[in-house]
Structure formats: C-alpha cells, structure tokens
Amino acid sequence: MVLAVICAHPTGNSSWEFVEGLMAMEVDHGRTDLFVSSGPSCDLRLDENFKLRFAAVHEHRETSRGKEAHKRAFRIMRQVKASHLLLIENDFVVQQHDLVQQLVQDDLPSVVPLGVTDGDQANFGVDKACFRPNWREGMFKGSYHREDRDKLVTGERRGLWPVKCWSSSIMVRRDYKERDALRVMGVGDGWCGDGRSIFLDNRHRFGKMLSPAGEYSQKR
C-alpha cells in the first residue's frame, strides 16, 4: 500500500491532532510506502522516527494549490505496484485506528471513509434530489433528499453507499483510474454534479474534519 499524506490546507493549532491520528493508525509499515507532500501554505512536520517505520519514504513540495500532489501519489502507487493508495489530507484527523483494515476488507475500487466536522459537514457529496431512494434494499436507487444525506452523516443509516464526490480522504485500488478519482474530487455545500459513483463507508465515523468539508475545494 501507499499512504499519501497531503498537506493541502494551512497548518494551524490543530496540526498536532492530525499528526497524532496519523501515527496511531494501524498500518503494515514494512509493506507500506509513505508519500508526504507539503503545500505552499503548509508546513507539516512528521517525526523522523515515524517515517523510518515505512518501507520507503517519498517527499514532495507542492508549489500551487492544484492536484499535482495527488497525481504524484497515484504515480508512486503504480511504480511500486502497490495494491492500494490511501490519500489523507491534513484536515482529516484519523479517529478509527484500524481504518486501513476496515476499508480494504470489501475490496472496492474506491471508498471514502466518513469524516465529519463539529458542525456535521462531511467529506462526501451527492447529486441533488429527484426522488426518494428505497432504503429497504440496502442501497440507494435514484437521488437523495437532504434528510437522506443527513442520515448518512449522523450514522443513522450505516453501510456502503454510492456518492458522487469526495474530499480529504479516499482509498483506491490500483486498477481504479486516476482521472476518475480526481474528476470527482471536491465537495461544494454537500452537493455535486452527476458523475461516476464512488462508495462512502459510514459504518464508522473514521475521522474528524478540522475545517468545513469543501471549503478548500471550492477555492481550487
């Protein structure tokens, strides 16, 4: 696996919380490469002893607010022939320490681990409502109403659900196309246009968002 840590947001007083969550993750370090990218307004400091746990470390300095760091992470996954890539931006504090094992177990091409702010904004988006889905079949058919989306955020409805876009964290399998993952990156006010579905895993609240989801994405 490749663990990509992307410092895409200005570092602030909560950066220690992000680092602590990262270091507490349960990872097979001997079989995992670490990719670390710092952005123009981000100075993320990871302990050198933490980096030494990994099979290899790749470091990158991003000069703009684009997606070059994310693209580099995909290239490294292909170069080292890793089975999965886990992208985590520095506004996603990992709270579920076995996040990797939880996301890998279903062998999905792409899956977004649920992250929520204190104000109940989340790191996924859905297309705007046309008609109510059929919950009884355990999967959405059609589009969402806002109250349906809220049930996913609060965990009232737990499971694996198709969503349309993501921010801050995603796990992809090596055979998932880079352009598909990056095309649906960015959440604006919880909604996004119709596109290829990815999956949200909300069986746990995997992380805490340090800033409103999509705030940075809307500026890109």
Keywords:
Spore Coat Polysaccharide Biosynthesis Protein SpsA, Chain A, single chain, 13 strands, 220 residues, Glycosyltransferase 2-like domain-containing protein, eight-stranded mixed sheet, disordered C terminus, three-stranded mixed sheet
Task: State the gist of this model.
The chain is of the alpha/beta class and 220 residues long.
Sketch the major β-sheet.
8 strands, mixed
In angstroms, what separates the terminal alpha carbons?
28 Å
What is the averaged pLDDT score? 84
Order of helices and strands: EHEHEHEEHEEEHEEEHEE
CATH topology: Spore Coat Polysaccharide Biosynthesis Protein SpsA, Chain A
Oligomeric state, counting identical vs distinct chains? single chain
Strand content: 15-25%
Helix segment count?
6
Helical residue percent?
10-25%
Overall structural class, as computed from helix and strand content, comes to: alpha/beta
Shape: globular
Q: What is the second-level CATH architecture? A: Alpha-Beta Complex
What report would you give on this structure?
- This protein has 220 residues and is an alpha/beta fold.
- The protein has one domain (2-219): Spore Coat Polysaccharide Biosynthesis Protein SpsA, Chain A (Alpha-Beta Complex).
- The protein has 6 helices and 13 strands.
- The strands form 3 sheets. An 8-stranded mixed beta sheet has the order 3-2-1-4-11-6-12-9. It has a 3-stranded mixed beta sheet with strand order 5-13-7. A two-stranded antiparallel sheet has the order 8-10.
- Helix 1 (15-23) links the parallel strand 1 and strand 2.
- The protein is globular, with a radius of gyration of 16 Å.
